[in-house]
Amino acid sequence: MNRHALIIHAHPDPASLTAQFAALARQTLQQQGYGVMESDLYAMGWKAGADAQDFPDRINPQRLFLISESQHAYASGRQSADVAAEQQKLLAADLVIMLFPLWWYGLPALHKGWIDRVYA
Length: 120
Prior knowledge:
This protein is of the alpha/beta class. It is built from 5 helices and 3 strands.
């Protein structure tokens, strides 16, 4: 059985400790037989904030209710391409690793934005 891992990481410096952890995780998982997918959010230029552009076919054009619009976009297959691609990675993964520095006792806004936009 093929196993798949998804590594999601967010740090603006490609030589950071976070990036080194991601590289080590990738190498270790590949040695263990995993197919590894990776989302380097800074390198991808990931858009952190959810907004009306994420929902081209809204149920309520007057008001943006993110939860209901996200559910509708997912159910109807009308999501933005970047969100749909990340959801496909997430659905294919048997293992998900999220790597990020702790900034002000939490994850970076970019990483939080990935969660907000991808989890429908």
